[in-house]
Design goal:
The chain has 533 residues and is an alpha+beta fold. The strands form 5 sheets. Strands 1, 2, 3, 4, 5 and 6 form a 6-stranded mixed sheet that branches. A 5-stranded antiparallel sheet has the order 13-12-18-17-16. Strand 9 and strand 10 form a beta hairpin. Helix 9 packs across helix 14. It is elongated, with a radius of gyration of 34 Å. The two termini are 64 Å apart.
């Protein structure tokens, strides 16, 4: 259906309109024969400006795009743009009110009636056109640019009316405090993702807008709001106070990422990265976790009953598994009289390598999945990587035992590992309540036995009080446990620093790229978060 409009003539425009009114058309050229370029060398008279503007505006208001384009020096571009104004911008009626000409330029007022479904809106703005002499026809013509339709349009742009991309929503923390864009820098990309993903699920309705469309089809400036959207409300599990601490902690370290959560529920309390790009290393990173992964390996060994915390397991300077690759400890340390608990607390790689033969092939990978929920397609509420543990043999198996090789984790998964060690039962981490979007959360196959939980927590407490994590955890009270890690990465001169710990009902994990020792670089990040409550 064509738009129907009119050109209004008032006293202020009598000089432009003249006595002839709008009764006749004088079509100088057609769509295929119009000038594609303009010249400003040839003079146009006042009467030519008046008549050309009158005929063009009349045809446009009447919905005759073909005729209107014929009064321009680029009929092909004009007819497409004018048709798009009517059809794509949902303009059902347009009134064009010209003002007094200033030389060759004629200002005019556009009042467009937009209909989007049952909604009607009046869109009013000012524009202008310039009359030039056609280079080949020598006729006065409107110098065509998209800015004739709207002054904010640039070359190749058109207009469109439709729903805005996402309904507006307010994102809240667990206590109802709004998490505003810019206040917590690490959350900015996450907030954009949440709005895009959950706007329809939390009662929000998108506003209807008229916007500029760039030549590549992407949206440009919003030119008019047809109807305001309704803001929905999304309450997350995040805690603004913990998030603030996490932001502070990562800001002091290059390449730092941290996640904090509640072991009792899996609810994520904070997510922060020193790199504020779109990639969220805390949730989506895929890198070796080093010795922090020994929590999983230790659980595997304790469940077999072939080792206990008090059993003597020497820590030699080097060790090899099945005459394969030789492994060493950080700084090439050794302790011939160490117990398994002391090996864990000192992060002795060689002691764990010496125990690899007591672990069946694939057992660590099965433990990671069936007990700790690693790689079980977590439905966190945002995009995450949920960890990967190889089930290989030989050197691959030996490297996996100490969190090297192709073991892939991130602060989210390692915070969850620490949380599972504290409670004995995996609770899938969530950032958005499962009721939003009706998500099915991942589960583990079984929990750790109370006896193994007690043993594992005892070793993690020893690490926190007198082992490699003691400095970072110094002075912290309550139920505490920790594990450090230094992960060797091919091509990096320094190891990645890892640290995971819990204190009462909060667990956290951090990685600092090329940070060196876990306790020195990543430990302070985790400590800062654990002391938020």
């Amino acid at each position: 259906m064509r738009a129907v409009g009119k050109v209004v003539v008032g006293a202020a425009v009598a000089a432009l309109v003249g006595a002839a009114g709008f009764g006749a058309y004088n079509l100088y050229t057609g769509v295929t024969g119009g000038d594609t370029t303009a010249t400003r060398d040839g003079q146009v008279t006042a009467s030519e400006v008046r008549d050309t503007a009158r005929h063009f505006l009349h045809a446009w208001a009447d919905g005759n795009d073909l005729r209107a384009s014929g009064f321009t020096n680029d009929a092909q571009a004009a007819v497409g743009a004018l048709s798009g104004f009517r059809d794509d911008a949902r303009v059902k009626k347009v009134t064009l009110t010209p003002g007094a000409a200033k030389g060759t330029t004629v200002p005019f007022r556009v009042t467009a009636e937009i209909r989007y479904g049952k909604t009607r809106s009046t869109w009013s703005y000012g524009s202008r056109l310039t009359v030039v002499r056609g280079r080949t026809t020598n006729k006065p013509l409107v110098d065509w640019t998209p800015a004739v339709i709207h002054p904010k349009l640039t070359k190749g742009q058109t207009v469109r009316t439709d729903l805005a991309e996402n309904p507006p929503i307010r994102v809240l923390d667990r206590h109802g405090k709004e998490l505003r864009q810019g206040r917590y820098p690490s959350l900015d990309p996450l907030l954009i993702s949440l709005r895009a993903r959950y706007g329809d699920d939390v009662g929000g309705t998108a506003q209807v807008e008229v916007w500029a469309v760039r030549p590549d089809g992407t949206a440009g400036d919003t030119l008019h709001v047809v109807t305001e959207g309704k803001r929905g409300t999304l309450r997350t599990t995040l805690d603004a106070a913990v998030q603030k601490r996490a932001e502070k902690a990562v800001s002091q370290r290059f390449g730092a990422s941290v996640v904090a959560l509640r072991p009792s529920t899996g609810e994520i309390l904070a997510v922060a990265n020193s790199d504020k790009g779109e990639f969220n290393a805390a949730l989506q990173g895929q890198t070796a976790p080093g010795s922090t992964f020994k929590i999983v390996t230790a659980a595997t060994l304790l469940e077999t009953g072939k080792v206990t915390p008090g059993r003597r397991v020497p820590c030699p300077r080097t060790a090899a598994y099945q005459q394969g690759r030789t492994f060493h400890n950080i700084e090439h340390s050794e302790n011939p009289s160490a117990t398994f608990a002391q090996d864990f607390a000192a992060s002795c790689n060689t002691a764990f390598i010496s125990l690899a033969g007591a672990i069946p092939d694939g057992a660590v990978a099965r433990e990671a999945q069936s007990v700790f929920g690693i790689g079980r397609d977590w439905q966190v509420g945002v995009s995450t990587f949920d960890g990967a543990v190889p089930d290989g043999s030989g050197d691959d198996k030996a490297a996996a035992v100490i969190g090297q090789g192709t073991v892939q984790m991130n602060p989210l998964t390692m915070a969850s590992v620490a949380a599972t060690a504290r409670t004995g039962a995996f609770k899938q981490p969530v950032l958005v309540p499962r009721s939003v979007g009706h998500r099915q959360l991942a589960t583990s196959d079984r929990a750790l036995s109370p006896a193994v939980v007690q043993q594992l927590k005892g070793m993690m407490r020893l690490t926190a009080t007198s082992g490699t994590a003691a400095r970072a955890m110094s002075g912290l009270t309550g139920d505490i446990g920790a594990k450090t890690g230094s992960a060797e990465i091919d091509g990096q001169p320094k190891t990645n620093a890892w640290f995971t710990a819990y204190r009462n009902d909060m667990a956290a994990a951090a990685v600092v790229t090329q940070g060196g020792h876990g306790g020195d670089a990543a430990g302070p990040v985790v400590r800062e978060v654990l002391t938020a409550h």
